[in-house]
Input
Amino acid sequence: MSDFKSFLKAGHAPTLFASFLYFAFSCCIWVMNGAMAPFITEDLKLTAAQKGLMLSIPIFAGAFMRFPLGILAQYVGRKAATLVEMSMIAVAMIYGYFYVHTFDNLLAMGALLGIAGASFGVALSLGSGWFPPKYKGLAMGLVGAGNVGTAVSVLVAPPLAQAYGWQTVYGFAAIAICLPMLVMIFFAKEPPDRDAHASFREHIACLFEKDGWAFSIIYGVTFGGFIGLTSFLPSYYYEQFHVSKVQAGQLTMLAAFMAAALRIFGGWISDRWGGVNTLTVVIITVAISLVLAGMAGDSLILTTLLLMLCFAALGTGNGALFQLVPLRWPLTTAVAGSMIGEIGALGGGLVPNAMGLAKTHTGSYLGGFVAIAVLAVLSLVMMRVMQIRWTRTWAEKGGRARTTGSTSGAYRDNTVKA
Output
């Protein structure tokens, strides 16, 4: 407890909370179509291909919008950028309430839901910006725990859709987003690290580095797997195990909640054990649990337990990876985080399509689970090769933060030379 108090005193707790709340509401809204997929599919008579497209568009749109929001945050401030984004989310939800009645409208709504998915990099940078390097992993883990919003969405949206109609849920979301906006206005403060304003070349340098793409691939496994499976599982449970639409959301919530809760642990343990070491265990766990979940397709209980384990590992991995980001890009954490989040989250958009293709061509979802597991193993091999150089330049053995006085200079050199 004393360690946590020391952590809070080292930064600005109200900004940390405001960032968490902002990210949680954003995640909740981002996966809303996935949470309501059984209702939307039945109402609009969607084919399997149309459903896959509906689930993928919000993920892809959110990924593509992350980097522009990160750039905006560097120039107008992270707090201001969050308020601009949340205002746009409110307008998007109003559109959904009044105008989404056809499949074409639904696709447009999916793109608008992507606005909420853009919040990631800015939320983490805003919340962790007040904290010194040794605490950034935990700070980012706490903000990243806003992923719990996905669990709230799959838990709350289905009963609301059943009671009031799925379009009305957009209206509820338009009202709900006002809460994090008010908290952000009155409690958050722009971090002082904005004073270390880097050049535009430094902002975009990570786009041209092998490290940036390596982090993105790993994040495509951890976060992409998390968000893609969260969007897909309500439909999977409903079709595979013939549970009710509301029960499908509740079962998905169990897994999604594990990912959100363990993200904090991922940041905390990575500060002590190292992000590379943590990610190694995470990826092995994800690969094994996914394959076993695919093989347990006839058992609801076993499938759910394996998916909870998988999501726990995915959440831990998300926290672990973003313990490494501020170590590698200390001056441009918001933009680097947004870029990695953008490219990495694209992996999530592939999950529903991969599952659908596996089902169409083989009659089983097992092939989809195996494909994701194979990609996870390949990312692990890549990371273990590249970490040899990482621990010689900007990180201690295992991926821990360096404490020597010459570290920041090395960071700057690495960033500018990209």
